[in-house]
Amino acid sequence: MTGSPAKGAGCRSAEKKDLKEMRRLCCAGFVLALSVLSSTPGSLIAETERGTETIEYRHRAELFFGVAHEEGGDEFAAGLAYEYRISRLLGVGGFVEHAGEEEDVWTFGVPLFVHPFKGARFLLAPGWETKEVESEEKETEQSFLTRAGIAYEYEVGRWSITPELNVDFIEGGHHVLVYGVSIGCGF
Question: Does the residue 12 lie in any domain?
Answer without folding.
Answer: no
